[in-house]
Design a protein that fits this description.
By secondary structure, this protein is mostly helical. The chain contains 5 helices and 2 strands. The protein has 2 domains: about 50 residues, 434 Repressor (Amino-terminal Domain) (Orthogonal Bundle); about 30 residues, no CATH class. Strand 1 and strand 2 form a beta hairpin.
Length: about 100
């Protein structure tokens, strides 16, 4: 079975489940079912709504993601790093 990563994509894009429901034209209580769908037409619709490639919706079992978890203090401000995306956002902020 394909392991989907739609919830991760929503988090990466800063989209709440309520916003996602609105984007998909469904009720909020149906979002969790949609996050586990294996219907290719629905997956294609989700990919289009999220503006990602269809294949981005599932995890590649051959790729190991590094585990990141920690805190960075910069000039007295503490940043929580729980994912590569958190690290990348902090890195981008520091380099702008």
């Amino acid at each position: 079975m394909i392991e989907l990563r739609i919830a991760e994509i929503l988090q990466e894009k800063g989209i709440s489940k309520t916003e996602f429901a609105d984007m998909m034209g469904i009720k909020k209580q149906n979002v969790n079912v949609l996050l586990e769908t294996n219907n290719i037409k629905k997956l294609d619709e989700i990919a289009n709504v999220l503006r990602v490639e269809l294949t981005d919706l599932w995890k590649d079992k051959n790729v190991l993601e590094p585990s990141v978890n920690g805190f960075v203090e910069i000039n007295g401000e503490v940043f929580t790093i729980k994912s590569i995306e958190d690290y990348n956002r902090l890195y981008s902020t520091l380099n702008n």
